[in-house]
Amino acid sequence: MSSSRVVFKTTAFERPLVTVDVVIFTVMAEQLCVLLVRRPESDGEPYPARWALPGGFVDVDRDASLLACAERKLRDKTGVAAPYLEQLGSWGDAKRDPRGWSSTHAYFALIPQPEAVDASATTTTEWVPCDQAARRRLAFDHNTILSTAIERLRSKVEYTSLPAFLLPEPFTLPQLQRVYEVVLGRPLDKSAFRKRMLDAAYLEEVGMVTGDHGRAAMGYRLRERDQATVFPRTFKSGE
Amino acid sequence: MSSSRVVFKTTAFERPLVTVDVVIFTVMAEQLCVLLVRRPESDGEPYPARWALPGGFVDVDRDASLLACAERKLRDKTGVAAPYLEQLGSWGDAKRDPRGWSSTHAYFALIPQPEAVDASATTTTEWVPCDQAARRRLAFDHNTILSTAIERLRSKVEYTSLPAFLLPEPFTLPQLQRVYEVVLGRPLDKSAFRKRMLDAAYLEEVGMVTGDHGRAAMGYRLRERDQATVFPRTFKSGE
DNA sequence: AAAATAGTGTCTTTGAGACAGTATGAC
DNA sequence: GTCATACTGTCTCAAAGACACTATTTT
């Protein structure tokens, strides 16, 4: 039997550039932070020396899929392998990259505070409080992407368990509440908060944890590390 | 002054194929329907004669942006110019298109029932009830995209004004409620429904409309045609 | 008048926030 | 013991669902 290899027409269309960018969030010192990288200064590079979101071209030989590409970029910059990673959206037009018509697939990731704070000391990579990062003039349309990411995160935090992915396990309910408050920028009622978290049953007790002062607290970890839990209601935000 | 034209390095990376697909919803005969198109049978075309979502390659010469490209494809297939159009997500990997590594940007659109029902008679284009469409074997990964779109629509209908974009204006509250019920697949309480719609204040009275039988009803139109309204709560879905 | 549909009023239930109270650990 | 923090109980209030009622138009 002759193995018949089907030949498909290649298109006449000029192909746009395709990139993947990742907005990586963490909480450091009670602040929501985002990772920025400095663009190279070499000749022929757009936006030389400008701060940007980590990202770059899809490598059709190495990346099996867009998600794999995003995971690779995250791993390269932070060493984190299995974070919370969600697609944010895509942006594409003729002007956003001076090299030509380009489209980028943006993801956002949540990771616990990285142990090696080296990253924040490097000259090509920096953890920046996200409000401050949003005020810098970033490369490409990364200001738009970053704003969208912050907005999406803040909005989802109102009714999902997303902040749990910003903490190293095990964590206590008071710690988790503090992260919610940091991201939302307002205090929450302790009793209502605890009821919500426990009713949702997405946490697993994992033994008492003793803090610096005061009474010991129950430690928890996520039952499912690969998806967020959606609560039936939103936190009442002064409706 | 010599006009210095900056030359940017073109990348060594092989460029993936870039397409845009649009999931176009409408309500016909009390059913949520989606528009499918038949792929050409010509040689060298992938998935010949298979049903697919409307879409195709980004044309870097004609399309200023991804959104403009999606609008063009919608206009070409339906003649509708200013519908509700929202980004759904993107899918990209090495295998989804036999012609090579490809990524697609998917949008979903909501339009009022098209007057020309010609479209549903054509051999290359068909309005299909969406549950039925989801059961067909579509081209590429369009089953995944369609499922995601249906899921997203159903989920957003629980807490947004999206169904209003599926009706021609002016519409009455009972008509709007029927669309909600069609999309959600369950009945809603009339009183609670009306309270929600009117409290959200996203509708504008536009005069009485008389139906076939019974009492005349107030006609409404959207105050803002370019964005959906988000309600403070979700419709209680048998929590 | 009867039928059909539009629109309103009221009761009940639910669940979240407020806030004060109790428990348990470190010193 | 005191202090600091973890955790719980109870009251109140608001919003949504249930459902019965009234209103207006067509036949």
Please tell me the total number of domains of chain A.
2
Structural class, judged by helices and strands of chain A? alpha+beta
Task: Name the beta content range of chain A.
Answer: 25-35%
At the first level of CATH, what is the class of the largest domain in chain A? Alpha Beta
Helix percent of chain A reads 10-25%
Mean pLDDT of chain A: 89
Q: What is the number of helices of chain A?
A: 5
Radius of gyration of chain A: 21 Å
CATH architecture of the largest domain in chain A: Alpha-Beta Complex
Topology pattern of chain A, helix = H, strand = E: EEEEHEEEHHEHHEE
Characterize the overall form of chain A.
Answer: elongated
Q: Total strand count of chain A, please? A: 10
**Would you identify the regions of chain A where 5 or more consecutive residues have pLDDT less than 50?**
none
Q: What fold name goes in the CATH topology slot of the largest domain in chain A?
A: Nucleoside Triphosphate Pyrophosphohydrolase
- Oligomer state of the chains in this structure: homodimer
Largest β sheet strand count, sense and barrel closure of chain A: 7 strands, mixed
What this model shows, in words?
The structure is a homodimer of 239-residue chains. Chain A folds into 2 domains: 17-156, Nucleoside Triphosphate Pyrophosphohydrolase; 160-222, Orthogonal Bundle (Arc Repressor Mutant, subunit A), CATH 1.10.10.10. The longest helix of chain A has 16 residues, at 142-157. The first copy, chain A, is built from 5 helices and 10 strands; from the N terminus they run ββββαβββααβααββ. The model of chain A has no long low-confidence stretch (mean pLDDT 89). The N and C termini of chain A lie far apart (71 Å). Chain A is an alpha+beta fold. The interface between A and B is large, with 42 and 42 residues. The first copy, chain A, binds a DNA duplex (27 and 27 nucleotides) through residues 172-174, 188-192, 194-196, 210-218, 232-233, 235-236.
